[in-house]
User: Fold this.
Amino acid sequence: MLWLIGTGLCDAQDLTLRALAAIRGADRVYLEGYTSLLRCPIQDLEKDLGRPLTVLARKDVESDIGPLLEEARTGSVALLVIGDPFGATTHADLYVRARHAGVEVRVVHNASVLTAIGTTGLELYRFGRTVSLPYWEAGFEPTSFLARIAENRKRGLHTLCLLDIKADQGRFMTVREGLEILESAEIRERTGIVTPDLSIVGVARLGWPDQLIIAGTLSGLKATDFGRPPHAIVIPGRLHPIEEEMLSFWTP
Amino acid sequence: MLWLIGTGLCDAQDLTLRALAAIRGADRVYLEGYTSLLRCPIQDLEKDLGRPLTVLARKDVESDIGPLLEEARTGSVALLVIGDPFGATTHADLYVRARHAGVEVRVVHNASVLTAIGTTGLELYRFGRTVSLPYWEAGFEPTSFLARIAENRKRGLHTLCLLDIKADQGRFMTVREGLEILESAEIRERTGIVTPDLSIVGVARLGWPDQLIIAGTLSGLKATDFGRPPHAIVIPGRLHPIEEEMLSFWTP
Assistant:
């Protein structure tokens, strides 16, 4: 049995009773540590759970998952995933492999940035397709997210921009870095969307006690220090009156 | 203090430790009972929580929220919302009113159908705008969801169709009823999308132990009994190989 267990967004307090029961019943507990970031150090999570955690890197899940699936074929294995298990694209792949290996999979859902972003007051039903902003590297400078943002805007929809995380390098993209990548992409694609006046909602530490939401212009938010990661960006589309009022709470 | 607390999808086992602490510390605990449906009767939830629950109807939240906000101004009030607190549009409105009444609001996030739908294997990043299919009534026969589905399909994106709930009348739209409304709308709008061969994923009791997912054609799924509510429908867009493989698990 393989349990895919969402941890929610902050720390062990976000675990559900269902998740705790599955973790306690598991022969071994893994933590997928490369798609997001919890507030607490792993040692604290181990202490709260009373279980040692084996942290998996991306390659452990994407290429070297065989040993874990072998354990799950004969015993009960829990894989903790920050947020909701299907918030990251790699986990459907894992689900498919497990099924092919004859392993039963159970899922324990939890909060994800994809819905918790509703706390900004922007309606979840008025979001278009979510995009990811990756760190640019030599030979990898994608701009396709800009076309998707443009499509959402054309329909009046908000766009959630997820910011790149390279946990193994300790790199977590900040609001400022994300806005700079939007600007760099704009220079190439000339969509006319990314201007200093573009309305932006910057979010840091969503679902944590010190969560920070600031609404402003792109140039204003580039100059704002959002503190500790993780961060995220929303580019609002057309606003309803209630949405406007909610954003006013986050406007300095 | 007003706590907006997501319950997750099934029963008290889906509550997080953070939610339980807030509920235990609250002077009074309300349950918003009109936007979704838990598996357990309210009496069971009360027993599991060790607290009496006051169930709110839509009008209590949308028009008559004054007394609750007054309680929250001087004490601690918990409002349980099935799924995630911002999964329903009325709660941003409540947040705004609370802030205007000088009430501090805290949010405890949880799983929502909007992300748990990822358990179908359809990637959350390949969903377009979510639509709602309402029950048609005399003088209220909207078809606008069809244009949104068409826009999503044009971009190759999946569409999650949320199905109407009239909890006060004990009416919970089934997959079959939802598909019939799509067909009725198609007769008027003639988009060419809604045909007997249209690929559909029907979902029942998402996140419950007896969750059911079936992929098939519109005509096939219209003839399928999905059992107890709540139900939901996904209209898949273009499929990646992994998505195709995931859907094959749900194809009878």
Notes: Chain B has two domains: 2-111, 114-249. Chain B touches chain A through 53 residues (CB under 8 Å). The radius of gyration of chain B is 19 Å. The CA atoms of residues 159 and 223 of chain B lie 21 Å apart.
